[in-house]
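Much of the work behind modern protein science is quiet bookkeeping, done one molecule at a time. Below is the pair of lines this work produces for a single protein:

***
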Amino acid sequence: MIKKGQIVRWNDSKGYGFIRCEVQGSEQATQDVFMHMSALEPMGRRPQVGDVVDFQIEVQADGKQRAFAACIGESESGSDGNKRRKAAIKPVKPQKPIKGVLYRIAIMLVVLAIASFVYNKTIAPMTANTALPVISNAVAADYSPISQAFKQQQSGIQVKSSGVVTRILADDNKGSRHQRFIIKLNNGQTLLIAHNIDLAPKINSLKEGDTVSFYGQYEHNDRGGVVHWTHYDPNGRHLGGWLKHQGKTYQ
């Protein structure tokens, strides 16, 4: 359910703050909901205290609430009176359990039919007289938390794994500085690692082809996802993460 609130605290250097909104079922009680910069839709400026925010709330494994799918609406603190254009949010529509199960079954049947067709047309004729090793589809058979979070478009999931660096990107120096690089997991999925170098040391010796282990929070996108919070939280509100490279831990 989409809620509306106002930013009452914002630490721009750390990239997070709190939104004050009404408690569901009460017109007088309010609550402050944590929001990280990564939860905001792209916009042309940094958020600030007084901004009105449309957002949704998710409950993490530890029971704490945080905002996601957020966008800045009209600010109540400005003096020009002009309305800012709101970013479009696609509300999450609840689906009936039975409908969701039938949909998944239909997808599985289609995948099995395609796999059977490919096998009968290509692999079966090749192996009629020759014994070949069985080649499994690692991505399809992978039931790891990261793979499942990507397939189900989930965010805010604590994950731990390792991968090979395929590309090193320029540091993001807007707001909190982040070292950025892309890794490839064993199942072929790619992840963008966004490591806060204002709170943790930078991996200066990082090269393409290196193996990096990580523990942090997964956020979904259509390119495989992003892992951040790979460091400790100085305010103690979030589970601390880390990166490991060539026997050294960065947190």
